[in-house]
Amino acid sequence: MQKIIAVTGATGSQGGGLARAILADSAGEFRVRALTRDVSSTSARALAAAGAEVVAADLDDEDSLRGAFEGVHGVYVVTNYFAERSAEEVAARSAADMELEQAGNAARAARAAKVQHVIWSTLDDTRPHFGDSGRVPLLDDGRYTVPHFDAKSEADELFRTAGVPTTYLRTTFYYESLAGPLAPVREADGTLVLTLPMADKRIAAIAAEDIGRTALGIFRRGPQEYAGRTVSIAGDHLTGEEIAHAMASAIGEPVHYRPLSWGDFRALGFAGAVEFGNMFQFYAENSEQFTGDRELDVVRELNPRLQTLSDWLEAHRAELRF
Fold first, then answer.
1. What is the β-pairing status of strands 117-122 and 30-36?
2. What is the pLDDT of residues 33-66, one digit of tens each?
3. Are 11 and 36 in contact (CB under 8 A)?
4. Using CA atoms, how far apart are residues 233 and 133, in angstroms rounded to an integer?
5. Is 193 exposed, middle or buried (0-12, 13-18, 19+ CB in 10 A)?
6. Which of 90, 182, 268, 320 is the most exposed place for a label (fewest CB within 10 A)?
7. Which value, to the nearest 10 degrees, does the dihedral of the CA atoms of residues 303, 305, 311, 315 take?
8. Residue 14: helix, strand or coil by DSSP?
9. So what's the pLDDT on residue 26?
10. Cα distances (angstroms) measured from residue 191 to each of 194, 199, 240, 248, 322
11. Displacement of CA 250 from its chain's centroid (Å)
């Protein structure tokens, strides 16, 4: 009999990657129960058409999660710090508080449903690295240095306290960001310039769909091997110069690397600029440990289809617009 994996955020990048990986898995060990707030959305209907069981559930509604988790073997939990919210919702609670509440709901619901294996999509806590040095601005009433990292790390304890067998899957920077908000910019003379604020340090990065594929590899190994473990993942470790070279090879046009400083990035003024500036400072200053924790050969054992940045750029060449 197939084991059911319930996937939160099944219409998003990570959850969708896992849902599609289960649906495409020829071994057929698992079947997917895709959880979404809107079962009538285009993405939800596409999953249903592909063979997923699509169920309405909301991370803010613990009772709905308990019902959705009934009878499942495993649960993949991912929260979305950057979810679009109304002004009233933002005023009522911070994004970090939202994630903490949602993680707690999922952990308690998994315990109530006697789920055998949870994978919690988390990130590193940046606060021990920065300490009280004052080198970066504090955010969220002084609680965090990079809230979307720190709150997820803080939520790890909620799963431990709930006593559910949990694997803590530490993710990282998406390749997709390099074709979106952090893509090279074209200067007035036509030159393409990558301004990623990484100085000369390596960044650990991954394709969003490879997070889901790696999670499937962990579910295959099971809680007997992976419960209680932290698994840190990436698909490639690259300097800014190497990223620019890979992009240039993909599009057939030179891409120059001229990194912004962290302070200049924080001063760009868009929503989240300060937080992302702090994040890149953490990535760069902590590069040796952060990349060292993400052993690519280990990740590839879980996900043999793991893509390098060059692999991903080649697969998405037609979509690259700089």
1. unpaired
2. 999 999 999 999 999 999 999 999 999 999 999 9
3. yes
4. 28
5. middle
6. 90
7. -120
8. helix
9. 86
10. 10, 20, 16, 12, 10
11. 24
Taking the C-alpha atoms of residue 44 and residue 47, their distance in angstroms, rounded to an integer, is 5
Question: What's the token pair of residue 316?
Answer: 């998405």
Query: Helix 13-24 and helix 42-50: axis angle, to 10°?
Result: 20
Tokens of 29: 């060990």
Q: Which of 141, 147, 99, 140 has the alpha carbon at shortest distance from 126?
A: 147
Total-model pTM: 0.97
Instruction: Name residue, tokens 């490639």.
Output: 236
Spatial separation of the C-alpha atoms in residues 298 and 294, rounded to whole Å: 8
* The residue to which tokens 């991903």 are assigned: 312
Q: If you write DSSP's letter for every residue of 17-40 in order, what string do you get?
A: HHHHHHHH-TT--EEEEEEES-TT
Q: What tokens does 4 get? A: 């059911």
Say if strands 192-194 and 185-186 run parallel, antiparallel, or are unpaired: antiparallel
Smallest Cα–Cα separation from 170: which of 281, 293, 287? 293
Residue in the block written with tokens 């890979």: 246
The two three-digit tokens of residue 132, written as one number:
């009280």
Instruction: Reply yes or no on whether the pLDDT at 1 is more than 90.
Output: no
Give me the domains of the chain, ranges plus CATH numbers: 3-319 (3.40.50.720)
The position carrying tokens 């109304």 is 86
Q: What is the largest CA-CA distance in the chain?
A: 62
Considering only CA atoms, which of 306, 136, 130 is closest in space to residue 233? Answer: 306
Place of tokens 């300097």: 239
